[in-house]
Inverse folding.
């Protein structure tokens, strides 16, 4: 990645201008045409640097409920438990971590009732007795941009 | 509230923006709307806070951040405000949230710390501990990403 790519990535992370031809607008700032910008983005996707270029929504504003769940999964059952959890579309992040609570995942649903229902179902199917349910009480910082 | 036309646009935006000269025209054509209507509705999502932005999400390993640690901190309730603000001021901290405690779990502040390696994450945590005076903390390093995707709302 050269400095041109890094600068483009920083700008892409902070957001595209909401105009008919956003890639043309990005190109003009660096005296390139929109084809050049589109090619760079495609290349950065192929190189697995850009995961997604699209809308970044605020699930809470959209009326969705979410929480963070931790499970104490037996080490020999991790893959099995992860497969069950990952099968839920409301699970967006799931990490194996160094702790006796070893599986940490986020769960999102359209309502508190549906969140609770999905959680109970996951706990029953995975058969892991010990869990933590840790919904966000206050957000001090939320920044998914990486300064390159 | 969102109507069916809003939801149809969100279905497009929660995936990947078409990599074409006029991406919103592509979406508009697919939904039998005008480009003007699509842009207008997206502007309204932004104004109402439903949409933060239209932008890129990176694979952070490839962007040079190979290690991530979930820092969990035991902060006295009357210090949460002060400590949360200090933690948020660290550029290596991407998220800082307050969460409930339980008899099994005494940690109420969570920070996601990113670094080039484990040692760098540990140094950041030490600096946070020093600056906030919070001594009771743990770093839960990620061993494996089991799933990471974006939410499909509709």
């Amino acid at each position: 990645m050269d400095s041109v790519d890094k600068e483009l990535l920083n700008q892409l992370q902070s957001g595209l201008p909401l105009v008919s031809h956003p890639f043309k607008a990005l190109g003009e700032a660096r005296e390139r045409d929109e084809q050049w910008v589109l090619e760079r983005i495609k290349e950065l996707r192929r190189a697995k640097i850009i995961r997604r270029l699209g809308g970044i929504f605020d699930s809470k504003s959209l009326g969705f409920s979410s929480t963070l769940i931790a499970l104490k999964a037996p080490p020999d059952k991790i893959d099995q438990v992860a497969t069950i959890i990952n099968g839920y579309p409301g699970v967006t992040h799931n990490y194996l971590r160094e702790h006796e609570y070893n599986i940490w995942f986020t769960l999102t649903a359209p309502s508190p009732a549906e969140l609770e229902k999905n959680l109970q179902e996951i706990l029953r199917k995975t058969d892991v007795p010990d869990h933590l349910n840790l919904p966000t009480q206050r957000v001090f910082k939320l920044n998914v941009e990486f300064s390159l | 509230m969102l109507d069916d036309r809003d939801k149809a646009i969100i279905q497009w935006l929660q995936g990947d923006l078409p990599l074409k000269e006029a991406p919103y025209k592509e979406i508009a054509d697919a939904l039998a709307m005008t480009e003007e209507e699509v842009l207008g509705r997206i502007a309204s999502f932004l104004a109402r806070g439903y949409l933060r932005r239209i932008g890129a999400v990176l694979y952070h390993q490839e962007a040079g951040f190979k290690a991530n640690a979930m820092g969990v901190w035991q902060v006295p309730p009357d210090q949460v405000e002060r400590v949360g603000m200090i933690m948020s001021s660290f550029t290596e901290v991407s998220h800082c949230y307050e969460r409930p405690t339980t008899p099994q779990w005494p940690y109420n502040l969570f920070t996601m710390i990113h670094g080039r390696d484990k040692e760098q994450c540990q140094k950041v945590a030490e600096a946070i501990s020093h600056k906030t005076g919070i001594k009771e903390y743990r770093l839960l390093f990620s061993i494996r990403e089991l799933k990471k995707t974006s939410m499909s709302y509709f």
Q: What stands out?
A: The first strand of chain A starts at residue 50 and ends at 57.
